Every structure is written in C-alpha cells, then in structure tokens.
Amino acid sequence: MRVAGRIFGWLLLLLGLMVTLRDALVWYDTGRFLPLSADEAWGLIRAFGRFRAPALGTIGEELWLGPLLLLAAAALFYFTRRRLRNRPF
Question: Phi-psi bin for 37: left (phi > 0), alpha (psi -120 to 50), beta?
Fold first, then answer.
C-alpha cells in the first residue's frame, strides 16, 4: 500500500508541476495570470475522453489545479512515509 501511494504521489507531484509551469508560461506570454481551474481541467477530460460526468460546479471554478495537485501529493508523501521505530540502545 505504501509503495502504491508513493508512486501515485510522484504522479500527482509531476502533474502539479506541469500545471504550475503551464500557468507560469501563460502568465509570461500574455501578461495576465490565468490559472487552470479544476473545472476547466475536468471539462478538457470530458471533451477528449468518454467520461460522462457532471461538471464540478462553482467550487471547481474557484480551485486552482496546480496547488491542489501539489497539496494532494504532499499529503500522500506524508501519509505513506517510512516511520522510524524506537530502538532502545
């Protein structure tokens, strides 16, 4: 379970960095800060995939996807970390 969580955490970290880099490049190119929201990303997935799920609504419009993915990766890394056992000397 710990290994699967760590692998999924690395994938979320990579996706979070990619989305954050995309936001930075759009900001550099246009001069306006237009971060990718969770609702926009879900709309892209629904448009190009075969997923028929409802939109995320107003909550999805408010959430920036980059920090959300990075926070999820950090939480996975924290909960799947290797814990040291107390060893008496």
Answer: beta
CA–CA separation, 22 and 16 (whole Å): 10
Q: Could you identify the residue written with the tokens 């306006």?
A: 32
Above 70 in pLDDT, residue 12? Answer: yes
**83 Cβ contact list (under 8 Å, min separation 6):** none
Half-sphere exposure of 82 (CA within 13 A, CB side): 2
Q: pTM for this structure?
A: 0.76
Answer whether 37's CB lies under 8 Å from 44's CB: no
